Amino acid sequence: MTDLVSLRDEASDSSATGRNGSVIRAVSLNAFFGAVHAVRDVSLAVPTNEVTAIIGPSGCGKSTLLRTFNRMHETVPTARVSGQVFFHDQDIYGDDVNPITLRRHVGMVFQRPTPFPTMSIRDNVAAGLRVQPGDRPDRKQVDEIVERALREAALWDEVKDRLKTSATGISGGQQQRLCIARALATAPHVLLLDEPTASLDPLSTQKVEELVYELRKTMTVIIVTHNMQQAARVSDRTIFMLAGELVETAPTRILFTTPNDPRTEAYITGRFG
Ligand SMILES: Nc1ncnc2c1ncn2[C@@H]1O[C@H](COP(=O)(O)OP(=O)(O)OP(=O)(O)O)[C@@H](O)[C@H]1O
Ligand SMILES: [Mg+2]
């Protein structure tokens, strides 16, 4: 396969960040579940080192769009995609792309915390490092990566004395930050977050939001949220979707104050959704 890993090393080279400085670019993208046409002809460019929020009413295709960006969509049996998604300048649906490798570069965190229940905190964070046989770092390297990822996820201080205990013994908010640490351990370029605070209390939500805000210094974050205040707090750009279509994308402040499309205005002012 084409070496996606090498793209990472080229990331500081502007030629590797794609046209318009975008790390993810979709062109005429459609996604289906059997006969359900969930994402309709979406074209967009996600700027590097920014937080992009995706908002819109339930069922409009936010999660599906997000899951086309790292080929998680195809893990559903009836799922199908047409059109293109570029990671840097590489078409991720090309025959030569290994989706497992892709997902190390375009990591994902889901709505509910999904720690591996039989694994320790440490091993949960390290789980993504094991994917490629032969390329496994030694124990000391793993420990360093685990510590870095847990620090980045703002969880290190809370778990450093119990790294070997079960990941199910920590709170839901901590488990979600653990899942973020697991995604960060492979040093992804892009982090996809699908309503990451939906099951969290306000304090845990605040911690995750602060983290998202920090992460954009080093990576690109795309976050699906139902919470418009959250989109306004954490994102640089916002995408508004309706019935599978991308209605509008703009800098967050503009989208929430002077949207172009009357449907966006109706949604953000609470007239539907
Ligand atoms: N596994 C699936 N099988 C069949 N249809 C699905 C599946 N997952 C989603 N859909 C359909 O695809 C469309 C888009 O769903 P999606 O989950 O992307 O919406 P969403 O905007 O994320 O909604 P929510 O805000 O409720 O999470 C909906 O019509 C939904 O019913
Ligand atoms: Mg969803």
What's the short story on this structure?
The protein has a domain at 4-113 and 188-268: P-loop containing nucleotide triphosphate hydrolases (Rossmann fold). Helices cover 33% and strands 25% of the residues. It has helices at residues 4-9, 62-68, 99-105, 121-126, 139-152, 156-159, 172-184, 202-215, 228-234, 252-257, 262-268, and strands at residues 22-33, 36-47, 51-55, 79-87, 90-91, 106-109, 190-194, 220-224, 237-242, 245-251.
Question: Would you write up a description of this structure?
Answer:
With 273 residues, the chain is an alpha/beta fold. The protein has a domain at 4-113 and 188-268: P-loop containing nucleotide triphosphate hydrolases (Rossmann fold), CATH 3.40.50. It is built from 11 helices and 10 strands. The protein has helices at residues 4-9, 62-68, 99-105, 121-126, 139-152, 156-159, 172-184, 202-215, 228-234, 252-257, 262-268, and strands at residues 22-33, 36-47, 51-55, 79-87, 90-91, 106-109, 190-194, 220-224, 237-242, 245-251. The strands form 2 sheets. It has a 6-stranded mixed β-sheet, with helices on both faces. A 4-stranded antiparallel β-sheet has the order 2-1-4-5, with helices on one face. Helix 5 (139-152) crosses helix 7 (172-184). It is globular. The protein starts with a helix and ends in a 5-residue tail after the last helix. Residues 1-19 have low confidence and may be disordered. The chain binds adenosine-5'-triphosphate and magnesium ion. Magnesium ion (MG) is lined by residues 62-63, 224.
